[in-house]
Backbone:
């Protein structure tokens, strides 16, 4: 395999210096791991520790007074996250809210948007779906007294193919025009790394009278998003992958303003969904604002929101277009290295699952192996300091993250794979 050219990293260093890169404890000679698991848990920004400590200190010094006083009263804390989160998903501020965790938000949003009525009761989603989304959808169907096998259409790739074709999605939408109530896909698929055509699928779904929701878990902070302009009805995301906000960090939701401004929308309510001006009057009747804030249920978890604020600041400072462009360059380089090692391996030893065209993928490359993936990923970690995650039965996912992955990381991954598979 080609030698690594250090100029690649010196000419295009990204923003790695802003992040804590875990030490490499493998038998390799490197000081830092080659981290490809940002699609699972993003790395910690160096600024996070001080920001969280500040809130802990405030709590120690102020107790309950911190709710109303100090530089950033906790009672309004989520409001500071609204604008930067909106910028990252291409939403308007009144359409965006940081709250809860991802699956909880999906349930809250489906409680509003999945309203089966008569024949219009079906949900279209991908079959290769993160299990939590599948469970959420099935349980929503059951909640309405319906049977998931009757109501949920799970679309599979064509035989012999790994990912969905937009034309096939559009055809199924047209075929089920009268019965579809909700179209719900992952914008970037967790397993294959496929980036869906959000705009076309949303438009086609609206054309047949269906509501459209997107899971952005693997899309936010990875690809550019324009939820408002694409006319998406609702979306939800987590902040612990590409938004680098730490395990279980506060998640987010988008509700298009044509719905968010309608205070009569049905929803599962809690006190934090009431207007800030009246919330502490503790009144009998729910009084929501005409914004996505109305879907909040509980008071904000400050210690899991502070890291989100720190991370969103990085996205604002660097800009999503620059991050995406760099991740495309890294992705291209990793593909070249993989193509090179594939020539020296038995045919089919590595199979690229993720689509080749940049408009159809984010920063993740998913590889299918004929050898045991658990052995491969353990050896990558223990012998080469390469952290990637395997998904049974045969896929290992590599996320070359625009913010902090280096070209050398990509080279190490390919070189490690070549050694292991040879
Ligand atoms: C696509 C997708 N949906 C849902 C989840 C579950 O998220 P949470 O446990 O934060 O609800 C994940 C987690 O990785 C995911 O990737």
Residues:
């Amino acid at each position: 395999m080609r030698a690594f050219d250090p100029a690649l990293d010196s000419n295009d260093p990204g923003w790695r210096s802003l992040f804590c890169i875990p030490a490499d404890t493998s038998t390799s000679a490197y000081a830092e791991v080659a981290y490809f698991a940002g699609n699972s848990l993003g790395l910690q920004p160096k600024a996070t520790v001080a920001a969280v400590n500040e809130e802990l200190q405030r709590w120690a010094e102020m107790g309950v007074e911190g709710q109303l006083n100090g530089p950033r009263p906790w009672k309004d804390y989520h409001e500071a996250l609204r604008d930067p989160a909106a910028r990252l998903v291409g939403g308007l501020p009144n359409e965006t809210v940081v709250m809860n965790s991802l699956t909880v938000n999906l349930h809250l949003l489906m409680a509003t948007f999945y309203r089966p009525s008569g024949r219009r009761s079906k949900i279209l989603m991908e079959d290769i779906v993160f299990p939590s989304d599948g469970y959420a959808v099935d349980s929503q169907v059951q909640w309405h007294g319906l049977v998931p096998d009757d109501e949920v259409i799970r679309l599979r790739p064509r035989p012999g193919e790994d990912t969905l074709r937009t034309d096939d999605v559009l055809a199924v939408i047209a075929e089920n025009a009268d019965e579809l109530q909700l179209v719900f896909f992952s914008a970037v698929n967790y397993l294959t790394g496929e980036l869906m055509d959000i705009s076309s699928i949303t438009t086609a779904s609206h054309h047949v009278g269906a509501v459209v929701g997107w899971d952005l878990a693997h899309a936010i902070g990875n690809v550019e998003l324009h939820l408002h302009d694409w006319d998406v009805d609702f979306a939800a995301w987590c902040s612990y992958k590409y938004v680098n906000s730490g395990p279980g960090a506060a998640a987010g939701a988008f509700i298009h303003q044509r719905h968010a401004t309608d205070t009569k929308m049905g929803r599962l309510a809690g006190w934090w969904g009431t207007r800030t001006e009246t919330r502490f009057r503790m009144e009998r009747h729910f009084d929501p604002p005409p914004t996505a804030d109305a879907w909040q249920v509980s008071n904000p978890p400050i210690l899991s929101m502070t890291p989100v604020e720190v991370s969103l600041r990085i996205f604002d400072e660097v800009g999503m277009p620059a991050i995406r462009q760099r991740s495309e360059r890294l992705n291209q380089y990793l593909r070249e290295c993989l193509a090179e090692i594939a020539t020296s391996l038995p045919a089919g030893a590595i199979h690229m699952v993720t689509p080749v065209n940049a408009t159809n993928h984010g920063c993740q490359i998913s590889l299918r192996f004929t050898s045991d993936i658990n052995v491969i990923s353990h050896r990558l970690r223990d012998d080469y300091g390469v952290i990637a995650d395997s998904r049974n039965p045969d896929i290992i996912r590599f996320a070359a993250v625009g913010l902090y992955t280096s070209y050398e990381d990509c080279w190490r991954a390919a070189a490690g794979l070549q050694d292991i598979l040879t």
Summary: The radius of gyration is 22 Å. Residues 282 and 401 are 45 Å apart (CA to CA). The pocket of pyridoxal-5'-phosphate is lined by residues 101-103, 130, 132-133, 186, 190, 215, 217-218, 238 (CB under 6 Å). The longest strand covers residues 180-186.
